[in-house]
């Protein structure tokens, strides 16, 4: 069985093509992947903050869907307040991004992501991961393990320590990205049909 087919069978999470900033910091000699409690304690405050804001936004969106059309102005005010908070959080998270460890994802999902590296990376190396999706108000701090992804210079990072709420946020983000991509594709097709 080909390596890509094995990965598809091993990874139960959907992935979507998407470019996002990610920091990969190799673990030092003797450093280990933390357990759930140690991971929770280690996560920098900005990552915890954006996770909580995203959770609140999800709950707020659920409540707003139950309002009738007379509350449209209230919904718009709440959405604008949410966008202001997202801008501030994006600024705060920018301080967590370290250029010397920066890569760009090619695909991402709840199980991990793929990325390209000009320098060869050792199979099975463990890394600290900082993944940034500011346009979706998602930032994830986790640990991963690197493996070749079949193409030259392409690697796969499988999450080996991640909070479930962060995995859920990545799954939701993947689905939102796919919906946007499908909508854009349908619009292009409709545009081509009218030309």
Radius of gyration: 19 Å
Q: Kindly state the number of beta strands.
A: 7
Question: Which percent band covers the strand fraction?
Answer: 25-35%
Helix content: 40-55%
Mean of pLDDT: 86
Question: How is this structure best summarized?
Answer:
By secondary structure, the chain is α+β, with helices and mostly antiparallel strands. 46% of the residues lie in helices and 25% in strands. Strands 2-3-4-7-6-5 form a 6-stranded antiparallel β-barrel.
Report what the structure shows:
The chain has 195 residues and is an alpha+beta fold. The protein is built from five helices and seven strands. It has helices at residues 3-10, 36-42, 45-65, 72-94, 164-194, and strands at residues 15-17, 21-26, 102-109, 112-116, 126-133, 138-148, 154-161. It has a six-stranded antiparallel barrel with strand order 2-3-4-7-6-5. The protein is globular and about 60 Å long. The termini are far apart. The relative contact order is 0.21.
């Amino acid at each position: 069985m080909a390596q890509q087919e094995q990965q598809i069978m091993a990874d139960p999470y959907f992935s979507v093509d998407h470019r996002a900033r990610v920091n990969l910091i190799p673990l030092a000699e003797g450093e280990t992947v933390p357990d759930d409690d140690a991971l929770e304690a280690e996560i920098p405050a900005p990552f915890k903050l954006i996770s909580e804001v995203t959770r609140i936004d999800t709950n707020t969106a659920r409540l707003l869907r139950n309002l009738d059309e007379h509350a449209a102005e209230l919904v718009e005010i709440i959405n604008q307040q949410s966008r202001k908070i997202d801008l501030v959080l994006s600024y705060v998270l920018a301080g967590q991004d370290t250029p010397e460890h920066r890569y760009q994802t090619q695909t991402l999902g709840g199980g991990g992501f793929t990325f390209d590296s000009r320098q060869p990376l050792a199979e099975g190396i463990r890394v600290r991961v900082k993944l940034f999706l500011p346009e979706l108000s998602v930032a994830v701090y986790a640990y991963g393990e690197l493996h070749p992804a079949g193409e030259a210079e392409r690697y796969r990072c499988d999450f080996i320590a991640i909070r479930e709420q962060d995995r859920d946020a990545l799954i939701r983000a993947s689905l939102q990205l796919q919906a946007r991509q499908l909508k854009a594709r349908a619009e292009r097709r409709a545009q081509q049909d009218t030309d």
